[in-house]
Amino acid sequence: MTAEEILKQLSLKEKIALCEGRNFWETKAVERLGLPSAFLCDGPHGLRKQEGSADMLGVNQSREATCFPTAVTTGASWDVALMERIGEAIGEEAAEQGVDVVLGPGANIKRNPLCGRNFEYVSEDPYLAGKMAAGMICGIQKNGTAASLKHFACNSQEFSRFNSDSVVDERTLREIYLTAFEIAVKEAKPKTVMCAYNKINDTHCSDSEELLTDILRREWGFDGLVVTDWGAMNDRVEGFKAGCDLNMPGGSDYMMKECLEAVKDGSLEERTVDVCARRIIEMALNVQKRPHIASDKEAHHALAREAAEQGAVLLKNNGVLPLNENQSVALIGAMAEVPRYQGSGSSHINPFRVVSPLEAMPNCTYAPGCDERGDTTRAMLAEAAKAAESVDVAVVFAGLPERYESEGFDRSNMKMPEGQLQLLEEVAKANPNTVVVLCCGSAVECSWDDQVNAILYMGLGGQAVGEAVKNLLYGRTVPSGKLTESWPLKYEDCVSSSYYGTKDAQYREGVYVGYRYYEKANIPVRWRFGYGLSYTTFVYSDLKAEKSKVMVTVTNSGKVAGAEVVQLYVKNNGSGYRPIRELKGFSKVFLDPGESKTVEFALDDRAYAIWDNGWVIPSGIYTMQVGDLSAEIELIGEKISLYRNDWYGKPQGTPSQKVWEAMLGRKYKEKIPVKGEFTMDNSVMEMKEHSLIMKIMFWAVESTVAKSFDGKKDYDNPEFKMMILSSAGGPLRSMQISGGMKGGLMQGLLEMANGHYFRGIKKMITG
Ligand code: BGC
């Protein structure tokens, strides 16, 4: 039967029901019509297929799969073809495990280093994030598996993630936060897009027709299916009108009731429901046509290793690296034995193998020096110093322990654990040849960098991290990764540091995100965006620039083969509200010693455009910068004045609320939930301070969650914290869906929280 024929056989109620998940991971099947269900599964750097108890936080067991490095590392490879190969491998494992839709990649912007999910995202730069996401989508979809580009959009903080409001002006939205999605949608045609939990300018993403239909479908030509993030559906009627097709992980009685009533009273047309239902039918019919594939695990492990090697960034090297086989080496730090190779949360994979650095380099001396939490003791430090003294080179493994970074919450500062810092100091004092291997999903403060001789940043290197570290340290692979985010000297240097992490995300800095800010405000950073060293050297020559084409020759002038990431920045020399330069092209080239290659970049209008009620090119002289070369071109475009006599013309420090409001064009006031006005969008956590019933609910949720943690309310455990924040911290509407609660229970409790006890009891009883 065709999608249309199936649709015609369904009643209105069946169609609405089809637009909600059958269970945590599957869409509904209609057996009498031969419509199969589709299986959706996280994502994004491997599969997390749960066949027993399901959850969205990666807590319960999932099937074994290959754990590739997370996007912080794969992104730093700047290698689109590599992303595609990783995507293809994940698509193969999906076909093997019967997974139809892979929930990834993520294309959210790293707006602030503290975001708990930065490890899952590629970059602070939308062009790079979009291109890399496109590569991965093409790979995943090669065999017919569907990818789900997420989280659309402006989802760059974990604090209050289910109902925070991203308050952002149109220009910033377009130039920074939507561009990555736009590139990925247009270039890779993902079969599905996942809408984010948050609101944008007071409208939930799931309710936003502007976002999900006007921009995504009409402007960008997306013809796939929109799925909610798990529990993100705000208002089902508005969701249908917006083009939000699939409500995961399921619907709720009250949403069904509202939809039926809305169709009855004419405020929702049945054909609007048909459009969404048709897309779900088409998706389920299409993915089922995929061939079954047996994936090659060993090849995927080797690919995970290659990805970790290509994405590792050499941040410092005073000549101690690469090591030679005759040197004696000590591995120091618990992370050498128990590596940090992935993040916590929905992306948490059950790898079929993990190779630690210690396993990969068994002949080295080893001293833990601190524990996995980053805590240390005098005895541990002394043992580590002794080990360091006894060898030619000491390699310290440090970074962020698991409990520091996770989905569900943001970090509270950019610091590494105190115990690790003490360890670094002791080891560096004991051995002048100290190398640090950094393992963390986002930038950390590194004021210790001048105490050590070399720093190799692995990000979160996936299941083969140990082998990759070995190959890089010994020069069997030459480091070629480049940073995809700026590393500030200290957190306070970050533009949003003083106002990031409040319930509403105030995008006050406008387009000045990452290097766009540091360069414009002339703030020194520890390591800049695009930075990374090599064991060889490269020379650039013959730069030729036209409006739509830039060519440059790169030569490997060193003694070993290696790869260079050729980066093209377009610099404008107008002043005013505009970043000084922006990345508009990149290409990774592998070169033998003495070898040269010519790289060609094709540029379109967007390389020069800004958003001003549409894309426009300001007239002027533009400078094309590649490596240490530059060439100017003149463009006749629009005569636009970007002059601003305020923070945006000359950013320095924090933009005040007042100056931001002037740019935004309206006043901003945070909406604080108050008793009497609570809605299904408020969480137990938000309401508990004002309502006894919610206090009791919170206690009940906490105690229930604690049962899975030996009865302990352990807020130091990222899984416990994440579960509390995702249950009691989620709006009642998503608690109702995720908890599979029936009838009017939640609405009854809501009435009570608002002080209407009798009405509440009635709602609970009558549903
Ligand atoms: C996450 C998504 C994930 C989904 C399903 C959500 O909490 O935000 O990224 O795909 O859960 O696990």
Explain the layout of strands and helices:
Blueprint: H1 3-8, H2 12-18, E1 40-42, E2 64-65, H3 71-75, H4 80-97, E3 101-103, H5 126-140, E4 146-152, E5 165-167, H6 170-188, E6 192-195, E7 199-200, E8 203-204, H7 209-219, E9 225-228, H8 236-242, H9 253-264, H10 270-287, H11 297-311, E10 313-317, E11 329-332, E12 350-351, H12 357-360, E13 365-367, H13 378-389, E14 393-399, H14 418-430, E15 434-439, E16 454-457, H15 465-473, E17 487-488, E18 505-506, H16 515-521, E19 525-527, E20 538-545, E21 549-556, E22 562-572, E23 581-591, E24 596-602, E25 610-611, E26 615-616, E27 620-626, E28 629-635, H17 657-664, H18 684-687, H19 692-707, H20 718-727, H21 732-738, H22 745-753, H23 757-766
Parallel strand pairs: 1-3, 2-12, 3-4, 4-6, 5-7, 5-18, 6-9, 11-13, 11-14, 14-15, 15-16
Antiparallel strand pairs: 7-8, 10-16, 17-19, 20-21, 21-24, 22-23, 22-27, 25-26, 27-28
The structure holds beta-D-glucopyranose.
